[in-house]
Amino acid sequence: PSCFGYPLSIFFIIINEFCERFSYYGMRAVLVLYFKYFLQWDDNLSTAIYHTFVALCYLTPILGAIIADSWLGKFKTIVSLSIVYTIGQAVMSVSSINDLTDQNQNGSPDNIAVHIALSMIGLILIALGTGGIKPCVSAFGGDQFEEDQDKQRSRFFSIFYLSINAGSLLSTIITPILRAQECGIHSKQRCYPLAFGVPAALMAISLVVFIAGSRMYKKVKPQGNIMVQVSKCIGFAIKNRFRHRSKEFPKREHWLDWASEKYDKRLIAQTKMVLKVLFLYIPLPMFWALFDQQGSRWTLQATTMDGNFGAIQIQPDQMQTVNPILIIIMVPVVDAVVYPLIKKCKINFTPLRKITVGMFLASLAFVAAALVQVQIDKTLPVFPAAEQSQIKIINLGTSNASIKFEPELRHVNVMSMDSTDYMTFETSQLQSLNITSGNKTKLDNIKLPGGKRHTLAVKDNEADLVFKWLLDNVTSKPEEGNNLIRFINNLPDPINVTMGETSFGNLASLSDSNYELFPGGRQDKITVVRNSMNCSLTSKAFGFGSAYTIVINECSRGNLTVTYSKDISPNTVHMAWQIPQYFILTCAEVVFSVTGLEFSYSQAPSNMKAVLQAGWLLTVAVGNIIVLIVAGASKLSEQWAEYVLFAALLLAVCIIFAVMAYFYTYIDPNEIEAQFDEEEKNQVKKDPDLYEKKAEADSQM
């Protein structure tokens, strides 16, 4: 049965792929946060385990391909490994239920080891499942087409890629929202069980849909595992070549011809084709090393940016959705507009040229990321070195104040109810201060510890000129776009301060609270209780990543008056500045990824496709391992420098690849196959028993 000229079975395969990708990317979207906040791992360990898991997911396809080709066939492999996969997702979901080991019901798991063990088992099952079926699903889709349906097959791979991205787009938007819900039996927590549970349910749906189409599939019988045969053939050729290394043996055209004593010509010819393509794969992992940092480095970059898009607040981890959104737009545009235009210009844009362009673009995307990083770095606060002190002055009085730092280091005037920025001094040079406000003057000998930030609060009240040193124990800009807030009580009586849900406790007159963390982009209600009287006010919006000191100046008849003093400015670089780098990287992915799959398919004999598929996915695994190595080995303290390093590495690899591609000659595997078929027919005519002999020889291999 067919539909729009496509086999009907294709639609089941595409729906199945959509659900499976939703399941995988949904789980992956919240994985790092799960490691960090639930399992309480630090950033480095979380990132390392994240990339290790991704690498594992792309290593297991080799296993899947072997099982499918030599034992179960693609259909049964997909079904059985999907079951393993579904169990893995379910285990993952269970591992994140904190009530599982929370006997004392205090809201945090008592036995974290149980959760770690369960989630590792879950992740291993998922890696086995997702990796095992990966080489089978797209190849199984390719199997559904007839020989003459090249155009449809090529269009199928594009639609296939689209369904992958539709699945990943929806899940990258939905799963973080699910995670943000509160749920739990005894205590309310972030809802990881739901965030992992929905992907598990979708995996189950994916399995049901796939089995539902069972009647319609064209199922190709497993032809014995070709990978094992190929490896044996290569091994034998090398051994044999080594045995005959002396001069008296005639050279052979290709080193693989040394296997001809034991293996038939057809297998040797096919192996040559495969090796030719695999050789071209060697530089490709570098592309994936950059590409997969969207989930780690680029997301961390977004946490230092401003996510206010007017009506909506974008969370840093939701920026990743830019990639699938763009893919869904770009794949059809590139297919229907860009490639035909290039063709019109009489440029022969071969698959290998596309891949080269893809690598170049990805390297460009990291240059863009580095430029954004430089802009971000400019807005980051500078903290004092070990032998420096930073001082900021807040004038809490009604008259202006003038402060001289002696010996003649600096002289500042501060208006009433105003504050200065931080001023940096060499701690050893600071000896004394001379404070004048109204008509009073005070002297103070300074003894500050080095390497810290301090606030000097000055107040001229009727009777006296008071001043007080406050230690600002903020040593870094708040993470994840959160804000730090503290209060100073500028009233004569003690007060109790609450902001949002957070209580700052009781503050004596002219004393300060500790800094507390608040989520970015929100406005909270400040409530002050003074002598059992309530005053309240909605705070201003603090943006993302700022630190503020809020001075409580007046609380009477329910009205509250405050002044804001900025200690660390909010993130000023807008998250939208990440869109160019995502756009460039997506263009790179469209020309690189879609082409790579198609090219591999066109250059290999039909029975070798699974080998190439596995090889292609292996490049992704190696790419993730490269991230671990480069990020671990490069002692670059500056993030922008690391981006530039990755861009430079990929550019170098891109040039090497361009040279390799230049010397590559395209082949048509079908022609070569046809030649062998022809030869065999002729031989059978001459020697009818040959077939029997060949079958015996094959079975002994």
Automatic annotation (TrEMBL):
<dbReference type="GO" id="GO:0015031">
    <property type="term" value="P:protein transport"/>
</dbReference>
<feature type="region of interest" description="Disordered">
    <location>
        <begin position="678"/>
        <end position="701"/>
    </location>
</feature>
<keyword id="KW-0769">Symport</keyword>
<comment type="similarity">
    <text>Belongs to the major facilitator superfamily. Proton-dependent oligopeptide transporter (POT/PTR) (TC 2.A.17) family.</text>
</comment>
<keyword id="KW-0813">Transport</keyword>
<keyword id="KW-0472">Membrane</keyword>
<protein>
    <recommendedName>
        <fullName>Solute carrier family 15 member 1</fullName>
    </recommendedName>
</protein>
<dbReference type="InterPro" id="IPR000109">
    <property type="entry name" value="POT_fam"/>
</dbReference>
<feature type="transmembrane region" description="Helical">
    <location>
        <begin position="75"/>
        <end position="92"/>
    </location>
</feature>
<dbReference type="InterPro" id="IPR004768">
    <property type="entry name" value="Oligopep_transport"/>
</dbReference>
<feature type="transmembrane region" description="Helical">
    <location>
        <begin position="325"/>
        <end position="342"/>
    </location>
</feature>
<keyword id="KW-0571">Peptide transport</keyword>
<feature type="transmembrane region" description="Helical">
    <location>
        <begin position="194"/>
        <end position="213"/>
    </location>
</feature>
<dbReference type="GO" id="GO:0035673">
    <property type="term" value="F:oligopeptide transmembrane transporter activity"/>
</dbReference>
<dbReference type="GO" id="GO:0016324">
    <property type="term" value="C:apical plasma membrane"/>
</dbReference>
<comment type="subunit">
    <text>Interacts (via extracellular domain region) with trypsin.</text>
</comment>
<feature type="transmembrane region" description="Helical">
    <location>
        <begin position="643"/>
        <end position="664"/>
    </location>
</feature>
<dbReference type="Pfam" id="PF00854">
    <property type="entry name" value="PTR2"/>
</dbReference>
<feature type="transmembrane region" description="Helical">
    <location>
        <begin position="354"/>
        <end position="374"/>
    </location>
</feature>
<feature type="transmembrane region" description="Helical">
    <location>
        <begin position="154"/>
        <end position="174"/>
    </location>
</feature>
<feature type="transmembrane region" description="Helical">
    <location>
        <begin position="273"/>
        <end position="291"/>
    </location>
</feature>
<keyword id="KW-0325">Glycoprotein</keyword>
<dbReference type="InterPro" id="IPR036259">
    <property type="entry name" value="MFS_trans_sf"/>
</dbReference>
<feature type="compositionally biased region" description="Basic and acidic residues">
    <location>
        <begin position="681"/>
        <end position="701"/>
    </location>
</feature>
<feature type="transmembrane region" description="Helical">
    <location>
        <begin position="610"/>
        <end position="631"/>
    </location>
</feature>
<feature type="transmembrane region" description="Helical">
    <location>
        <begin position="48"/>
        <end position="68"/>
    </location>
</feature>
<dbReference type="GO" id="GO:0015293">
    <property type="term" value="F:symporter activity"/>
</dbReference>
<dbReference type="InterPro" id="IPR018456">
    <property type="entry name" value="PTR2_symporter_CS"/>
</dbReference>
<keyword id="KW-1003">Cell membrane</keyword>
<keyword id="KW-0653">Protein transport</keyword>
<keyword id="KW-0812">Transmembrane</keyword>
<keyword id="KW-1133">Transmembrane helix</keyword>
<feature type="transmembrane region" description="Helical">
    <location>
        <begin position="112"/>
        <end position="133"/>
    </location>
</feature>
<comment type="function">
    <text>Electrogenic proton-coupled amino-acid transporter that transports oligopeptides of 2 to 4 amino acids with a preference for dipeptides. Transports neutral and monovalently charged peptides with a proton to peptide stoichiometry of 1:1 or 2:1. Primarily responsible for the absorption of dietary di- and tripeptides from the small intestinal lumen. Mediates transepithelial transport of muramyl and N-formylated bacterial dipeptides contributing to recognition of pathogenic bacteria by the mucosal immune system.</text>
</comment>
